Amino acid sequence: MEYLRHLMLPSLLFAAAGTVAILSLVFKENRFYRFFEHVFIGLATGYGVALTWTDVLRPNWWDPMYGEGRWWWAFVVPLGMMFYGVYSTKFSWQSRLIFGVLFGLAAGTVFQILSSQYIPQIRSSFKPLLTNSQPDIAHGLIDMPHAINNWIFMAVLISVLTYFFFAFEQKSKIVQKTATSGRYLLMISLGAVFGATIMTREALLIDRVRFLLFDWLQLNRFMH
What is the CA radius of gyration of the chain? Predict the structure, then answer.
């Protein structure tokens, strides 16, 4: 009886039903899946609204305006309402105005972030092809493992950049073969990224299966 009461706990039962419903899409789309899909989207939307209020609007807008007397923050409301002009033909110009201003501000911020992120990356791509090992700098000995690694890095970099260089027609066989090598190397890299993504999804699946078997059904109690 205790085991049956555990299976019928509302929180565990709802979580198990939702997990089975979402995983049932593997076989075919069904009403059971669609129902829990809508439930999940509704819960996620409600959670997002609550999180926006508690973590963004309240500390950054409501508390400074109401608690600290910064009344000028009230002018943010009509500016925010201009976004909804996109749903009206008459007032759509208001949404374009506010969207244009925010896109300009966001573009400047993103460009600053990207420049600080990618310029060091571009700078670090210039690697020395012959390097000295730290203990043997005075003797001028070459650190061969490090040098070979840099040669491989530069070969891959030049091959991939050649593949993406479309400013002129690639008539030379050397350039064509380099571009082809870059395409294959790029496919290997994307395959590795895709494999990592699949491993992440499998980890989520294993976690859900473990929840069904051990947290809900408690099969581990029958293994001892």
Answer: 29
Report the C-alpha gap between 224 and 216 in whole angstroms.
17
**What's the confidence (pLDDT) of residue 114?**
83
Each residue of 16-66: pLDDT tens digit? Answer: 999 999 999 988 999 999 999 999 999 999 999 999 999 999 999 999 998
| DSSP string for residues in 140-165 | T-B-HHHHHHHHHHHHHHHHHHHHT-
Cβ(126)–Cβ(154) under 8 Å? no
Backbone angles phi, psi at 8, to 5 degrees: -95, 10
Cα(111)–Cα(103) distance, integer angstroms: 12
CB 15 within 8 A of CB 216: yes
Q: How far apart are CA 211 and CA 207, in angstroms?
A: 6
Q: To which residue do tokens 């061969």 refer?
A: 144
Predicted confidence band of residue 134 (pLDDT cuts 50, 70, 90)? low
Instruction: Give the span between the Cα atoms of 100 and 132, in whole angstroms.
Output: 53
> 108-124: buried (b, 16+ CB within 10 Å) or exposed (e) per residue?
eeeeeeeeeeeeeeeee
Measure the CA–CA gap between 137 and 132, rounded to whole angstroms. Answer: 6
pLDDT in tens, 173-183: 899 999 999 99
Task: Check: CB of residue 84 under 8 Å from CB of residue 95.
Answer: yes
